[in-house]
Amino acid sequence: MTDKKTGMAREKLVNIHVNGTACEITVPAWRTLLEVLRELGHVEVKCGCEKGDCGACAVLLDGEVVDSCLTLAWNADRRSVMTVQGLGGPGKAHPLQTAFIEHGGAQCGYCTPGMILAAKALLDDIPNPSLDDIKRGLSGNLCRCTGYTRIFSAIRAAAQALRQEGGTS
Amino acid sequence: MNRMENPLAGVKSEKFRQVGKPLIRTDSPTKVYGTAVYAGDLTMPGMLYAAVLHSERASALLRRVDTTRAKELPGVHCVLTAEDLPASQGVMTDMPGQTGGMTKNTKQPILAKDRVRFCGEPIALVAAESVAIAEQAIGLIDVDYQDIDGVYDPFDALAPGAPIVYGDDNVVASYKIRKGDIEKGFAEADVIVENTFTTQYQEQAFLEPEAALAWVDELEVLNIRSSTQVVEHYRAVADAIGLPHNRVRLRAEFVGGGFGGKEVMTIEVWLALLALASRRPVRLVQPRERSFLSHGPRHPFNITHRTGVTRDGKITALQISFTSDAGAYAKLSPYILLYATVGATGPYRVDNLHVDSVSAATNNLPACAFRGFGTMQANLACEGQMEEIAKTLGMDSMEVRRRNFIRTGDANATGQIIRSAVWSDQCATQALAALGKRPENSQTTRIGHGVACYQQSYGRILWMKDSSEAWVGVEMDGTVVVRSAVADIGGGQSSALAQITAEILGVPMKEVVVYFGDGAVTPLAGTSTASRALYMSGNATQMAATRVRENLLGCAGRHFSVEAEELDMNDSQVFVVGDPKRSMTINDCVKLCAAEGVHRHNLAIFKAPTSEGIDPETGQGEVFPDFTYGAHAAQVAVDIETGEVRVLQSIGAHDVGQAINLRAVEGQVEGSALMGQGFALCEELILEQGQLQTRSLSEYLIPTSEDVPKIKAIILESGSGLGPFGSKGIGEPVYAPVAASIANAVTDAIGVHIFELPITPEKIVKALRRKETVG
Ligand code: FES
Ligand code: FES
Known about the structure:
The complex is a heterodimer of chains A (169) and B (775). Chain A is an alpha+beta fold. In chain A, 36% of the residues lie in helices and 17% in strands. In chain A, strands 2-1-5-3-4 form a 5-stranded mixed β-sheet, with helices on both faces. In chain A, a hairpin with a 2-residue loop joins strand 3 and strand 4. The longest helix of chain A has 20 residues, at 149-168. Chain B is of the alpha+beta class and 775 residues long. In chain B, 27% of the residues lie in helices and 25% in strands. In chain B, helix 9 links the parallel strand 16 (315-327) and strand 17. The relative contact order of chain B is 0.14. Mean pLDDT of chain B is 95; it is low at 1-13. Chains A and B meet through helix 3, helix 4, helix 5 and helix 6 of A and helix 1 and helix 16 of B. The complex binds FE2/S2 (inorganic) cluster (2 copies). One FE2/S2 (inorganic) cluster sits between chains A (106-111, 143-146) and B (207, 257, 490).
């Protein structure tokens, strides 16, 4: 559909690969990736502010961590998005998830999906992060419950597990 | 007070098999995999989306609220204003779910009618086909305000001739304590130390804003699934809109953080009205900006201490005054003021005491419950005053504390005898020791160490006559079900019940499922507030599980021809102690019970101790079931050029009575360390003439991952609490001393006491300049 006055497309069909599944959806230019993902049923992507302040909505877009509330759905066209459910789940947990469970990295759990994806992006970048690297890597993700200490220790444990995995496979 | 008999009856081994261990919480996997459902995630066929119009003015008459254009917008299903509401015209904001006496004047209009009293007061509700349409409709509502004089400071509000916001005189509540002989006490003092401390608004800033879904079901029951700390709000919803209590069902989903902000009803009643009016499911998720307006932040307090002390540090007299800013409606302000009043002396014994406290209404945001509930502000002043006394006397402040610590058997400020262990000294000593050696000061940084102790209640006010129910049952395959309407607000509330039950029935924790938070089908547990969930629901669950155990062991005993006392349960087996060949699986045992017609389940009620209140003239009487004690120590580095404070270490040491889940307890200590750091150093809701200036998480700053110091939890276990297995409440207590310890560390670093929180770089730089010019 195009706008009569400007001739600009107001809605378009976008094709987003979410956790490996192609999803087609017609969206107006102003809709955020956050809204679209949640509309597609990916309610594991949380909303805490809609302004880029909290990181609860973080997802991986072609492997880069973004705040989905600041990303327009159009910008995700023909790109792949990973949410925390795409990272792993029961029976096939990602080492980060295992470590978050074992270290008690989630309390209320509302920050957790975004936090884990920010951690994933960090470890993809820096497989053996220092504590300062971790603090910097999570600086866009707020947590009000945990004081972050168990999140930090979970990420370190996961980093180690991932390095060992990488070494043996 | 009546007390329960030994809660350990039924568990043979003093050494627990599961309780106290850092087991994986039952709610962890679902949260980490992203499968946990929160209220804002719920959808239903035909669901509408709500939006709320909040007042833009702090004090104004509503001359007209015109919804014509909003109603005409395509996609809008209903628009409600005060005109459309049932006659009751108010919602109870008194202590939720209580059975005791209520404070007068705690009803608040659901929607403002003729007048708005604060900026943010709800005026109109919309339900529409989409969030975008609902928002557009909100923008089409014309409100004609006529500003009237407002009052924005509690002292102004109490002055003669002030604009009246509440009652006849803006006094929302007041208390006094008159204990001992204060004149004699001051006469015995060698020095008198007087200081005034002020604290700011603090916002809960839970990550999940208010969210709920409401609809009317096939039984004509109004259902609400909400992010709430209080399932019992179903009664307040029913009363507010004129439905019988059995026609409202409230379910508490996993709560994405509450901290008191989801204690008093937030959005539930609005959704109830919209669902009834539209006959469609309606969901609301408050945008962050409106979340700030939808619950009450922590009260700003002004606290003066005038302390008489002898040369060797003994307090002989103490006179305290509190003034808190309640904002435009009472909400829980009277209770929060009571907590501050009872906690006025902190963890110290003061025999000659006067306390005068008042909470005043203004046209500011109504303040309400927030972790610590007034006690932490009171404590902050106590602990700052300890440093000032020590400085005046040239003593070490820990020595002054030791001279005055309350001990088991002593009477507290209201004359209540402390019966449980008081390990203030041990906790403070261990926390300080854990800080280790002080790093050297550099050219521009000054290192400081600070400590603070506290006394914080757990459990509700005794005249609320609190109780909690829980149901425990064993299925035929030996798996276990717990039913409790406890709200799971992130502290591991439901997981703790699984762990307690697993311990008592000798099954692995993963064999236990806890159904929680449903006001219609799980037994009512009371609120997840007041650090009472573990204490109350833990005890009820322990009672129910213990009775189920007795039934199972009775059957097994008859089978093995032994007394039940000779049997034990572990690893899903029932066995004769010392004779492992005589054993059976728990499912075989359950089948025996079934065949004998013996109950495999139990519904228990735990009743808290009660009292009838305090003497209004003297403030003397029993107020709380018990108290938790502990300490927090902090190490800070202050940049004396920029005024920037970095917290380097933050260490909480607490007597938790008995940890149920060690990891969960430590998690509470760690989370409170950072939240308290925010309160001490950076968090402040700013209001100008009642208008909120800080409306986002980029303006209201909470600590981030980059602010995290080295945090450590030291857990002590006296076993003396009233909770299951001797546990004490910890959710609020661990928060109580944090800000004070950081403030004291800053004082230690720079040699100047900043009495006004938060301690921002500007205040530090100013204070240092003043010190230079004066000194
Ligand atoms: S919701 Fe996207 S950053 Fe907060
Ligand atoms: S666990 Fe609650 S916000 Fe992080």
